[in-house]
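Obj: model holo form, ligand = NDP.
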Amino acid sequence: MESLAGKTVFVAGHRGLVGSALVRRLESEDCEILTATRAELDLCDQAAVRAWMRDRRPDAVFLAAAKVGGILANATYPADFLYENLMIEANVIEAAFRADVDKLLFLGSSCIYPKFAEQPIVEASLLTGPLEPTNEWYAVAKIAGIKLAQAYRQQHGRDFISAMPTNLYGPGDNFDLNSSHVLPALIRKAHEAKRGGAKEMVIWGTGSPRREFLHVDDCADACVHLMKHYSQAEHVNVGSGEDIPIYDLTRLVCDVVGFGGEIVRDPTKPDGTPRKLMSADRLRGLGWAPKVPLREGIAATYAWFREHVADA
Ligand SMILES: NC(=O)C1=CN([C@@H]2O[C@H](COP(=O)(O)OP(=O)(O)OC[C@H]3O[C@@H](n4cnc5c(N)ncnc54)[C@H](OP(=O)(O)O)[C@@H]3O)[C@@H](O)[C@H]2O)C=CC1
Ligand SMILES: C[C@H]1O[C@H](OP(=O)(O)OP(=O)(O)OC[C@H]2O[C@@H](n3cnc4c(=O)[nH]c(N)nc43)[C@H](O)[C@@H]2O)[C@@H](O)[C@@H](O)C1=O
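Output (holo structure tokens):
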């Protein structure tokens, strides 16, 4: 699928962080974008997904719908993260097969890799060691999604591919402190500490784990690039190629937000995996590179947060 022009493209999860960025990105592709809210189509409902896909018959599908959350949500709701993600991906991939969808891109996550994988993590590290316990349920579901796409390719010759993004952030993120990922949490915490005149702001864990961050508009652009130019069984890492300790990230966010107080660590909260930097070689080899520098991306996301969440 070298071009999306004239194609009908279903973005599953279009109200989410990644799905909404995909819709923004696809607006320049001259394609027809199909979406469905959860009220219109519950992706955990197999019969409904089959009927929807049979009636619309999209040419291409971006599977960006999932049960998603940060380290605490993942560790607290293992059954929800495993069950809902298995249902969503099984239903959408199987229905896409039945409806003769030409191409499907499944979105997984960098948490599929072993907790102590050699860094930077190459795609071939998958299933070479034990997973990080805080998110193993989610990771097992995402590994099953990769395997489903590969199985339909192997058994039925379908062009179903998988992308594994690193930790993402940007407009439309979840800023709820209990369920969010670290970057939106830090933006909210720094903003509220500044507003309230607090002397300190608390971060979870030791602050020493390292994470790799990618702006969601870069992720969406990479997914469109893969949809057009990649047709192989192996999943592809989607990252920035650079990581940063959580403590340093906190200082960066505080600087952007303008909070000058103390950063206090809460060691009763989990650190998760110590480091999760993915190798960017495969995607670079396919001719794609990220555009949004971390500081600029954080500043733009903070502006979005102020307009849509904090002062809304
Ligand atoms: N955010 C991140 O840092 C990363 C995300 N990813 C991957 O990207 C993908 C998208 O994540 P992200 O955009 O962050 O997640 P969000 O939570 O922002 O969005 C998920 C979307 O899926 C929809 N959805 C969930 N369950 C159902 C359901 N049963 N029926 C219909 N729709 C449903 C949600 O609908 P509703 O709006 O109704 O809730 C929402 O629109 C996921 O596969 C995730 O693994 C990968 C790496 C990092
Ligand atoms: C994308 C990825 O995201 C998750 O894995 P994670 O990277 O561990 O998630 P996280 O962003 O929540 O935390 C990153 C680090 O940051 C620390 N941290 C500090 N202070 C806060 C804080 O206030 N909130 C949060 N959430 N974390 C904080 C936190 O303790 C940890 O050390 C999984 O959902 C996984 O399944 C997945 O796919």
